[in-house]
Structure formats: C-alpha cells, structure tokens
TrEMBL record:
<dbReference type="InterPro" id="IPR058163">
    <property type="entry name" value="LysR-type_TF_proteobact-type"/>
</dbReference>
<dbReference type="InterPro" id="IPR005119">
    <property type="entry name" value="LysR_subst-bd"/>
</dbReference>
<dbReference type="InterPro" id="IPR036388">
    <property type="entry name" value="WH-like_DNA-bd_sf"/>
</dbReference>
<dbReference type="GO" id="GO:0003700">
    <property type="term" value="F:DNA-binding transcription factor activity"/>
</dbReference>
<dbReference type="InterPro" id="IPR000847">
    <property type="entry name" value="LysR_HTH_N"/>
</dbReference>
<dbReference type="InterPro" id="IPR036390">
    <property type="entry name" value="WH_DNA-bd_sf"/>
</dbReference>
<dbReference type="GO" id="GO:0043565">
    <property type="term" value="F:sequence-specific DNA binding"/>
</dbReference>
<keyword id="KW-0238">DNA-binding</keyword>
<dbReference type="GO" id="GO:0006351">
    <property type="term" value="P:DNA-templated transcription"/>
</dbReference>
<comment type="similarity">
    <text>Belongs to the LysR transcriptional regulatory family.</text>
</comment>
<keyword id="KW-0804">Transcription</keyword>
<protein>
    <submittedName>
        <fullName>Glycine cleavage system transcriptional activator GcvA</fullName>
    </submittedName>
</protein>
<dbReference type="Pfam" id="PF03466">
    <property type="entry name" value="LysR_substrate"/>
</dbReference>
<feature type="domain" description="HTH lysR-type">
    <location>
        <begin position="7"/>
        <end position="64"/>
    </location>
</feature>
<dbReference type="Pfam" id="PF00126">
    <property type="entry name" value="HTH_1"/>
</dbReference>
<keyword id="KW-0805">Transcription regulation</keyword>
Length: 298
C-alpha cells in the first residue's frame, strides 16, 4: 500500500474552518491566528490541489463546488478526531462525599482511619466536616453524620454504629493502682455541649464505683473532648473518657485504663437523610461498619 499523499494538516484545518464559518475572519478567531494567515493557508492548499476553493466576496467567502465536495469529508474527519481524543483523555468524574461528626470523633476516630477509606474507594473523595453542632442533612451540608446520643432523630435514618462506655484513663506515668489514688491527682473534665441527666460525669462514676470523699468538682475543664485526651496523655491528670475515642491511645500504651468501673454511654449513630441512600452513602456505611468490626476484633 502506497503512503497517503495529503496536504499539510494546517491548511486542511484552515479550509475546514473557513468553509464551515463562511468567513476567513471568523476562522482566524476560532484557530487563534490572523485572517492573513488563514488566507495564506487557503492559497497554499489551492496551489497544491490546483483548484480554486473559495470565491472571495466583500464581506464573506463562498466555497466553490469543489470545496463543497471536500468540506464534509474533512468535517467528519475532524469530528472523528475530536471524539477519539476526548474518549482517550476523558477522566471519570470523581465523586465527593461529606461526613459530619463532632470535633473529638473526627480527630480521634475518623482521621486515623481515613486512609483506609481512600484505599477501599479510590474514586470517592471523603470530606470530613467537624462540628459539635448538628448539621442539617436535608440542606446538603453533609451526606451523612456520626451523632452521639440517645436518639431517635426525627426525619432521619439512624443506625447504631458504636456502643459507648466511659472510664478513667491516664498516662501510665501516673502509676495509678486503685481508686483511692485519684485523691492525689487532678481530675480532667470534658464538658458536654448538650448535657443530659445521664451524661457520664465524675460524680456519676464515683457513685457507681462506691468512692466517697472525692472532690468531683475540682480539676481542669475542657470544652473539647480531644483536648482532655491530649491533657491526659501529657500526664496532667485523670480523665473520664469515651473508650471508643481513646482506643488507639490505649492500644499504643500512651494511655491506660487503671481500673473500672466503666459507665455505659449512648451509642454513636450513623445518620443520613434518605431512606434509600445513594451508592456513595452505602459505601461509607459499609466502610464504617467494617472499621467498627475490625476494632472489636483487636
């Protein structure tokens, strides 16, 4: 098979644009060149083909019969080029998914695990919305949320995710041996943003532990539970904390639970707005369940 003998691509592009737009000026604008450059390209093509392709008129150009025969072939060819290139270079549109949770849950539970979500779902971009105020899921602020509480949540679908217990934790450097050792250490308090009668507190823990005479109102107070956790890790005192949030710290040995009892708290719930959630929300729910199950086995 002999090689194709074709005019330069630039002259063919100039011709196709001029024939389609019926104007050298508009063809020049489309191709980001000057009208003079278009005119030179067309003359070069006419010279190579030995054909007159345009009748030059005052305000426009008119393709000749030969040009009208050539134009649809080039038009279809360039359209086919454009489509093939678009298909080859197309990238699947990434989907974004936003989950809202409290500041402490985001920092202590979600952030350490988010890499595993991206490994499991590389085409989904997970965005973490950290706020201690519940967001309006119907307004689209987030696709789903993790909420701590008694439930139910009217107008939302809520699935229990993590059972919660609260117990004294501290740095191993404090060397606590028994509950009486609490009297010589600072109590760290995490204040509840929306406290209820059964919110875990040092007073409630002392009642369950049968410990009298401990000044449960003294100590350091934090409005953010993650700050109380960091203070406990630093050895500033003993904190009554969610064992869910400090599970990684307990496993790493930066915190210890020196003794019980553990107070039963409310669950963490996976909450979303749609009774028939989209595949992205279902993927998030499945991943969260798997992470909880993984933690339960450790």
């Amino acid at each position: 098979m002999s090689g194709r003998r074709l005019p330069p691509l630039g002259t063919l592009r100039a011709f196709e644009a001029a024939a389609r737009l019926r104007s050298f000026k508009r063809a020049a604008e489309e191709l980001s060149v000057t009208p003079t450059a278009i005119s030179h390209q067309i003359r070069a093509l006419e010279a190579q083909l030995g054909l007159r392709l345009f009748e030059r008129e005052t305000r426009r150009v008119r393709p000749t019969a030969e040009a009208e025969r050539l134009y649809p072939v080039l038009r279809d060819g360039f359209d086919a080029f454009a489509q093939a290139i678009a298909e080859l270079t197309a990238r699947p549109r990434r989907q974004a998914l936003t989950i809202s949770a409290t500041l402490s849950f985001t920092a202590k539970w979600l952030v350490p695990r988010v890499a595993s979500f991206h490994a499991a779902y590389p085409d989904l971009d997970l965005r973490l919305h950290a706020s201690d105020d519940p967001v309006d899921l119907h307004a689209g602020v987030a696709d789903a949320a993790i909420r701590y509480g008694r439930g139910p949540y009217p107008g939302l679908v809520a699935e229990p995710l993590i059972d919660n217990r609260f117990a004294p934790v501290c740095s191993p450097r404090l060397d606590l041996r028994g509950t009486d050792d609490l009297r010589r250490h600072t109590l760290l308090h995490s204040e509840w943003r929306h406290p209820t009668q059964d919110s875990p507190t040092w007073r409630g823990w002392c009642l369950q532990a049968g410990l009298d005479g401990l000044d449960v109102d003294a100590g350091l107070r934090f409005t953010d539970e993650s700050h109380a956790i960091q203070s406990a890790i630093a050895g500033h005192g003993v904190a009554l904390l969610s064992l869910t949030l400090v599970a990684d710290d307990l496993a790493a040995g930066t915190l210890v639970q020196p003794f019980g009892p553990a107070l039963q708290g409310h669950p963490h719930w996976f909450v979303h707005a749609d009774a028939n959630p989209n595949p992205q929300v279902r993927a998030l729910r499945d991943w969260l369940r798997a992470q909880v199950a993984l933690g339960a086995r450790d």
